[in-house]
Structure formats: C-alpha cells, structure tokens
Amino acid sequence: MPDAHVESSLYPEAVRERVSNALKRLSRTGALPTLPAVAEAALVIARDPGADVGELCEILEADVGLAARMLRIANSTAPVRRRPICRLADAVLEVGLRKTCDVLLAAGARHLHDATSPLAEPLWNHALATGLASAELARRTGLAEPEAAFLTGLLHDVGRIAYFLTDEVSLEVVDHLAESGEAGRIAAEHDWYGFDHAEAGAILGTEWGLAAEQCDAIRWHHSRANEPGEEALATLLGVADWIAHRMGCGDSSRVPGTPASLGSFGIDEEGLEPLLKQLLVSFARHRLVHA
Ligand SMILES: [Fe+2]
Ligand SMILES: [Fe+2]
Q: What distance in angstroms lies between residue 156's CA and the mean position of ligand 2's atoms?
C-alpha cells in the first residue's frame, strides 16, 4: 500500500477521490456526512468580510434553541446591564459577528457528535478542548487567527466522526486495537480503511468549505506536530491536541508523549499548569453553553 502522506502531497486529487468514494461506500446513505445547515451558513458568513448582523439573525431566527442560547450568552457577558438584551440583533452586536459564528459552528459540531454511542461524548470533549487550546495558542503566538484556529481544533478529528457516522462497528474494532496497544491508531486505520482519520477529516473539511490551510492542518495534525516551522497551523494543532490530553480530555486512554515543538510555543512545565487551569475554566463554560 502506498504511503498516504507521501501520496497526498503528490496526488491530492487522487487521494481525495479515493477517500471520498470509500467514505460514501461505507455510509448507509451513500453520501458523505454533512455539516449541519446552521454551521454551514455560519461558515460562509464568517468568511465574508461584507457580512452583516441581519444575515446572522436570519439564521438564528430559524432555530429557537440557538436564538435562546445567543441571548443567554449576550446577557451573561454584560451582567450589570439595567435591562436584559432581548433582541437578537442586539445580542449579536454584543457578542460580536465572528464570535456568534463560532457559537453557531460549535453548535453544528456538537450536533455531529450527538449520538448514543459511548464514544460520542469523549470525542466531543476532546474536540472542544482542542478547539479552545488551539485558539489560545494562536492568541499567544499570532500564528493564526484565534477564530480560525478554534474551528480547526474543533473539527480536527472529524474524520473519526465520519467513521463513526458511516461504519460504527469498524470504528469500535479500530478503537479496540488502538486502546489495547496492539497497533497505533493511525496504522490500525490504514489497515482497516486504507486511509486515516486525519486524511478523511481534511477531505470532509474541503467538502464543507474550510480554508485550504485549515484542511492541511487537519491532514497533518499527527504527522507534523513535532516539526515547528513546517506547517504552522498543523504544528499548533498537534500541540493543542496534546494539551487537550493534559486537560483530561484525551481521545484515548493512551496519553501521547510531549511534543518536541512545545517549547517553540513558549510553554514549559512551569507555564503549562496555569495554561491548563485557564483552559479548564473556559472548557467548563463552553460545555454549559453547548450542553
Ligand atoms: Fe487525530
Ligand atoms: Fe485529536
């Protein structure tokens, strides 16, 4: 079997087609998993510099649960206000356009993880923790926009969700192999599917309209975490993934080794503790918002 990482850089279209077709074949519906409509619309607005509050309000008005959530967030950011915010447009202005898009995208990602399998909840915790850690690393280093880094972190393991949505039994077999130490996760996925979750996630990200840099970061989040300077966002994502493990939100019980690139983010063991505390507070708040 050819090395998928080498192949992807040389023949991205061929790999994309092969993985995409395999995922379609695996799925019960014969189609690729889709991003919920609200998140898809938010993604378009987030990337449009001319977007306005009215467009976001239209999306929110169609979803009572999300509208209520936005009002709650807006009122919690300004608790000393004499009168509570009760209009959606005011709520979006209070929270900010990009942050509102983040809320909608996170709600969409949460929806993707809404399943009865016992794997869904830990995968969601891992996604959220990695998203928050990615945004914080981006804020500290200026390597990426925090909002873009948040979304990339949130969706970095969406390839595993794709396995989960298309073929739950295989996912459990691969998970067992990885958890028992019989095989590394990436190797087990290659044996079982012919490609790994990072590749599958990058292809879904492309389908959904994520920026090329975000898709590349997802594609390389395991293979380039230790190569500072190579693919900045991929390295950042790999470190954020490790931080999520240290927050107790790993995607498996096997904690990966400390990434060699950690120092290049200005983090040492001493600086790690306050960072973990800060992220755990933020994680608890976001868990409440997206319960
Ligand atoms: Fe991963
Ligand atoms: Fe991960």
A: 6
Q: Which residues contact 13 (CB under 8 A, 6 or more apart)?
A: none
pLDDT digits (tens, 9 = 90+) for 96-153: 888 888 888 888 888 887 765 677 888 889 999 999 999 999 999 998 889 889 999 9
Q: From the CA of 237, how far away is ligand 1's center (Å)?
A: 9
pTM for the complete prediction?
0.82
Identity of the residue numbered 249: C
Those residues whose C-beta lies under 8 Å from the C-beta of residue 103, and which sit 6 or more positions away, are 66, 69, 70, 73, 95, 289
- The ligand minimizing its distance to the Cα of 159 is 1
- Name the nearest CA neighbour of 23 among 220, 201, 191: 201
Mean pLDDT of the region 192-217: 88
Residue 7 reports pLDDT greater than 50? no
CA pair distance 273, 256, nearest whole angstrom:
18
Q: How far apart are CA 252 and CA 245, in angstroms?
A: 8
pLDDT > 70: what percent of the chain? 89
Decide: 185 and 252 in contact? Cβ < 8 Å: yes
Considering only CA atoms, which of 65, 163, 34, 153 is closest in space to residue 102?
153
Query: What token pair was written down for 86?
Result: 């009760």
Amino acid occupying residue 23: L
* Angle at CA of residue 117, ends 115 and 122, nearest 5°: 90
Structural domains in the chain plus CATH codes: 118-289 (1.10.3210.10)
Q: How far is the CA of 52 from the centre of ligand 1 (A)?
A: 35
Residues, CB within 5 angstroms of ligand 1 (ion): 157
Taking the C-alpha atoms of residue 208 and residue 279, their distance in angstroms, rounded to an integer, is: 28
